Amino acid sequence: MDTRWPDVRKHARRALRRLAAMLAGLCLLAAAGPAGAQQAPLRMALIPYLSPNVLVPLFQPLARHFEKDVGRAVDLYSAPSIRVHVERIVRPDYDIVFTAPHMGRLAQIDGGYVPIGSFERPLTGVISVRNDGPIKSLDQLRGKTVAINDRLVLNSILTLKELEKRGIALSDLVIVPAASQNSALLSVATGDVDAAITVNFAIGQIPQERQGELRILFQTEEVPSMPSTLILVHPAMPARDRQRLETSLMSFAATGEGKRFLLASHYRNVVRAVPKDVRKLDIYLPELRRLLAAGAGG
After folding, report:
1. Which of 162, 192, 219 is where one domain is finished?
2. CA 145 from centroid of its chain's CA atoms
3. Where is the domain boundary, 198, 219, 240?
4. How far apart are CA 101 and CA 191, in angstroms?
5. Distances from the Cα of 26 to the Cαs of 13, 14, 34, 35, 39, in angstroms?
6. Pair (259, 130) in one structural domain
7. Which structural domain range is residue 284 located in?
8. Is the pTM value of this prediction over 0.85?
9. The total number of structural domains that make up the chain
10. 114 FRET partner, CA 20 to 30 A, in 87, 174, 255, 272?
11. Which residues pair with 233 in a beta bridge?
12. How does pLDDT run across 144-161, given as a tens digit for each residue?
């Protein structure tokens, strides 16, 4: 009698069991369908107003808070420049965006993003100089080197317009590009440039000993009720998920991590995005569009 057949039958039974297990696994994946797909990490874009080694750790508490409340991982993304950041968020490329207010409004109009909140702090443009330096008035900025992170950011637009009102044109300054707002301030502290134009809360992102070496020469006026930042979500995000993220954001400030974040970032609170206040940003869009169209030179 041929004894090979029992082995063949045994191997066949094993193969069938393996096949059945594979089919069961495929059925489970098929049943999971959209739910499985939803487990992909949410992609959150951060405007690169600070250097990546400062920016990403600063926003990790918010990412962890979203992860806990929404049940999905949140990956943080920066960009090599402000311009690239704007180009990406108007496409739109990300699930969540944290950005400058006028750029958020542009992303809402051109990319369909939906605002869900704002980190509250009146936004002003600041010109900083060295404490022990010779510059004591705005007129003394003529011909001096001034570090600017990017002319697209709102504090740059506000400050340069105020200087223009006072008879100091862009051509009167020697503009030095800076990789970030904190690096612009550090370049003043180290004496590499004469002054820097930044947002008012950027100084809190450089070492304390360096802060003492700087002095505010000029600051623009606050614009009441205008958002100083915007957090937005992708237009295709389901309303239920959008609501969960908004609820999570609104609860962030009351948590231990949220309080530490507000202290470290120098924002005052988390507030809702009020449509009529968001629309106030429209006055800055023509200049933002002009600068984007003009390219790096502006």
Report:
1. 219
2. 27
3. 219
4. 31
5. 20, 18, 14, 15, 17
6. no
7. 42-122+226-294
8. no
9. 2
10. 255
11. 96, 114
12. 999 999 999 999 999 999
